[in-house]
Design brief:
Four copies of one chain form a homotetramer. By secondary structure, chain A is mainly alpha-helical. Chain A is 77% helix and 0% strand. Chains in contact: A-B, A-C, A-D, B-C, B-D, C-D.
Amino acid sequence: MTFQEIIKLHPHPTSVDRDTLLRCIEECLDCGASCTACADASLSEEDVQSMVRVVRLCSDCADECEATGRIVTRQTAPDLRLMRTMLQACVAACVVCAEECDKHAAHHEHCRVCAEVCRRCKQACDELLAAIG
Amino acid sequence: MTFQEIIKLHPHPTSVDRDTLLRCIEECLDCGASCTACADASLSEEDVQSMVRVVRLCSDCADECEATGRIVTRQTAPDLRLMRTMLQACVAACVVCAEECDKHAAHHEHCRVCAEVCRRCKQACDELLAAIG
Amino acid sequence: MTFQEIIKLHPHPTSVDRDTLLRCIEECLDCGASCTACADASLSEEDVQSMVRVVRLCSDCADECEATGRIVTRQTAPDLRLMRTMLQACVAACVVCAEECDKHAAHHEHCRVCAEVCRRCKQACDELLAAIG
Amino acid sequence: MTFQEIIKLHPHPTSVDRDTLLRCIEECLDCGASCTACADASLSEEDVQSMVRVVRLCSDCADECEATGRIVTRQTAPDLRLMRTMLQACVAACVVCAEECDKHAAHHEHCRVCAEVCRRCKQACDELLAAIG
């Protein structure tokens, strides 16, 4: 996506490995949008009564992925302590959401796909955490 | 991106043309992230004093693109009045931001690219507005 | 709230009437949080099947109120065209959400209160629109 | 604010101490709006060159406070692991932002007030963390 091109044009890029950074931001964006879409699809299912926790945790995960995506996007005068705790919270949101979506994966394809996106986002956050050190 | 796959799996998709819808959401996401990145890059420029309005309008555009992206993503029981005014506000945010970024495009490549993304997002919103009727 | 004190300390405040501005921001904040809370309470109701549209429209209204609140908070180099369309979209979100919450007000107290907050926020946006001209 | 009334009307409130919960949400809201306002005021200062890090960290803190405020607001089927890491990230954002604002408190009143709000929000998050256990 084009935003990655803009990040590469920052006058003082951070020393963090760029590919790891860009991949994490893209996964946060995709996971945020996926969780908004999965919460919405779950809300329209006939068995919505059993989807309540999916809607809740997908909403949380969307909120956290978007906030993390924004913070990791910024390269001006970064604070690594903050970046680290944000990525850890994002990992937690993705893990919790994936676990809940897994429970409904057999009956609802959107939950199966959403769990995959969450795990991919978790991994990208883990890799950025490792790169930050 | 994977979120588009999840939107396709919604149990009761809206009657709006799907490709137009998916393109609009993707552009809102890319424009939101691009504007966050351009505001941040502008903040790190030596001539930040002359970039103040870029930072401000890119921040506005990021906020509005993300809100519009979320609302357009939801297909459950949509309200077209609301979707229409949101898309109109998003168009306004993209136009205003592109105009400001254009002024700095000759000196700052990130502003040139950001103005392009804003115009692409504006067009995708216009097309969804036309599809909604 | 304290944020209003900070807005008053802006080095170059906008010419918009300050009390109208501060009231609008406060209502956007309260309405955004109220809609998040009402969507969540509705999701926990036994008759969640009939609350699906409330959850959806409260989520939309929360997203739009928060984006509008941020944009109206910023006083640096404002663009009135953008502010106007944002406020109009916020009015639409509040009207649509209040109408839906009204339908459930007799059975669910949180919907009755949420509809009131939405109408108060709509009015504060209308007043700021009138002040901007 | 009215949103607190709605939270009290949730059909299945969490077992977390309600006053601690409501105070934390209110502080997250106030801190989020305060940081948006302080980032914006800093951007308009004549010495904007020396305010760059304030703008950046206030923007981060606003994003994180809003996300945490939303997640803590939801009482439906909560996940305490997630709530805990979110509150910890919010504490980090508040601490980092307060430290930076402190450096400018002598010259810019909005930074002095913003640092206070950040510390109040940090404390409210710490208290909710203690209540969750």
